[in-house]
Amino acid sequence: MNLDIFEVLKTGLSIEDVAIDTYSPLTLAFVGDNVYELILRTKVVTDGNTAVNKLNKMTSDLACAKFQCELVNVLMDELNEEEIRVFKRGRNAKSNSKAKNASYNEYKHATGFETLIGYLYLTHNSERIFELLKIGFSKVNGENR
């Protein structure tokens, strides 16, 4: 059985549909950042029980802008036209936030990546998120190089 977590939340919390194009790219990135973080935390916890500080370190290594930039760069050939449009919309969005431990380019690419994740989540495409992350993690880890 395939359950979409957003659909469950919508039903359980009586959330009404909103046209996806009405969300700003930074709003999509806000959602995408949290969806990606939840996926990462789930992955590291289910990889094995360990100390919380180690779990935080493993998660932060995968959630940093530098890694997200690398991830989206290896995924570009996998994205369809709409996904590329959404990524670029997020990458090019003006933000008052500054990169903390990343270059400007890495930060902008990470924002685009998070925008894409938020977009896919809010359009009920969780399976596509998992598909892209599986491919991306595999490529970044050198399995497809």
Automatic annotation (TrEMBL):
MF-aspect GO terms: ribonuclease III activity; rRNA binding
Family assignment from sequence similarity: Belongs to the MrnC RNase family.
Domain of life, source organism: Bacteria
Organism: Eubacterium uniforme
Cofactor: Mg(2+)
Annotated catalytic residues: D33
The protein's name in its UniProt record: Mini-ribonuclease 3
Protein keywords: Cytoplasm, Endonuclease, Hydrolase, Magnesium, Nuclease, Ribosome biogenesis, RNA-binding, rRNA processing, rRNA-binding
Magnesium as UniProt keyword: yes
Protein's UniProt keywords contain Transferase: no
Reported function: Involved in correct processing of both the 5' and 3' ends of 23S rRNA precursor. Processes 30S rRNA precursor transcript even in absence of ribonuclease 3 (Rnc); Rnc processes 30S rRNA into smaller rRNA precursors.
Quaternary structure, from the entry: Homodimer.
Gene: mrnC
Compartment annotation: Cytoplasm
Record GO biological process: rRNA processing
GO CC terms of this entry: cytoplasm
